[in-house]
Amino acid sequence: MKILGKASTVALYVLTFLFFLSCRPTPQERERVIIDDLGHRIKIKRDVKRVVSLVPTNSEHVCILDCDRLYGGTRYDHFPEELVKRVKEGKIKIIGGGFDPNLEMIIEIEPDLILANGPSQQRVVLPLKRMGYPILSLYPKNIERLKRDFLLLGEILGRKAKAIKIVKEVESRLKEIQKKTRPKKRIRVYLQTWPNPMITVGKGSFPHSLITLAGGINVFGDMLFDSGKVGIEWIIKRNPQVLIFTDHQAEFVKKIVKRPEWRQIAGVKNNHICFINETFLRRRIQFIDGLEKIYECLFLRYADNKTL
Amino acid sequence: MTRLTQGWLIVLFFLLVSFTLALSTGPVKLSFLSMSPTDRVILFNLRLPRALSSFFVGGGLALAGAIFQGLFRNPLADSYLLGISSGASLGAAVALVLGFTSPIAVFTGVSFFSFLGSLGALALVFYFGSQNGAISTFRLLLSGLGVGLFISSFVAILMIMAEEELKALIFFFLGGFSSSSWETTLLALVFVPVGVLIALYYSRELNVLLLGEETAKSSGVNTKSIQAIYAVLAAFLTSVSVSVAGLIGFVGLIVPHMIRMIFGADHRVLFPLTFLVGGTFLILCDTIAKVIIAPSELPVGVVTSICGVPFFLYLLKKEKGEYGL
Fold it and tell me: Was domain B3-9+48-318 assigned CATH 1.10.3470.10?
């Protein structure tokens, strides 16, 4: 009886030990392997706590999901307000810009994830990569990829449910817009992002997708580059019904609407001109805000020049 | 017909052809016989000022290059010598990045401040390049180098501060006429012809000067004042061009050499021909820039190099005689 008791105690110990052993995460489980938008295989901790972002949109995404985990951002980060507040309070450090980050500051933060964007940043992050920091490049080419990247970020930050909720909301608002635009005739749109020289957006660009989804046709949608310089004569030829300018161009627009060459354009003649803040055109998960504004400009209130 | 007369005829012929081409090429097909109001606007408000702009800017840059090469007796001298491009770049960068606008309504911030910047740089270059009121070309060259490098570092600082303005700044560096209107053309239209006349007026003296300063002095040429007049003139022509069209490389360097290879180094011939060929060349390049990647436009500086360099190299290889300034 005594022996049996002892044996059972030992067995209990062994079992308990085995139980804990099985519970202790194996190396594979403490890390996950991800293939990012550039096709790089990277290993990331299961519970990422300290993130440094080298891209404003990535900073914004992290902050939306869990601002506590963002420790370093760029000097160009202006969204959301929470982020700006935290920068002021010193909780988020400005590590420089996307092409001139201060590597020492980044190392001091001891991040367990660094977010970069496309090929252009790879050279800057190379030293960090060599030192073994996990660098995740999020470089979504279209809205589908953007949503996927946002969900991935949610998963990495342990905020999967929140990410799914946000993406669902974006999708339903997008569906709403598409339902409204489907019966409508598409409108020819010219979007100018810079006045002098005049720069507009082309096929591969994000604003081009926004215009298309909002029920418009980008009149320079055949331009091969993301953005390029155009002459006024081409704009006359393409004859857009609506002209959208980023909102720092008010002076420029005031001048051109009186000019005879611009008066040849339908949108100028009908004064169907809108202004939009450049941040609404960025590759961010809240792109739906910008999309709705463009829709509003195309189809709703356009009695006079509107800042969206 | 002498070779020179033939040359003049060929140059004028090409000028006529390129001008016609510039006026008739573009996305909108104009019916010249029965013009609609839109056609008229396109021709008179867009294509005509653009063609004139590119003609006077090209001519001005080429002439400035010819003057600098003669003055400094240096085949590598071009119109952007003497820190002009750096000064202009700084002005453009200040206007773009810090958002300064022009106090004079007809100019854009970029063209006003690049003009101001280039004149400011020139003042510095001439200050450091002169000794006791006398300008020595050698000193001027080194002073231009120093001031230019110094200013460029501030341009770099502004470029780092720039966000979306960077692309506009790059377009300024590469030059172009896509936003030409009568207002932007005005500056070139007024100042470049005056510059050409001044350059022609003193060209005999410059010829004498090139024989050596001693010879020039003994034949009664005031060498110092001739040097000063030409240096200021060429610099001013460049400043005007830059503020109209941004930085357009190559024209000021190569066109004078082409003319010299074909017609020799007499400045009385070199100056007018260089001016005309420079203008014609830039009209052609701008027309190409306008259509080659339509609906977008190439910066004209890219076209000047791609089209001009091969021809220049061909001439260089073909020219058998002793070539020099």
Answer: yes
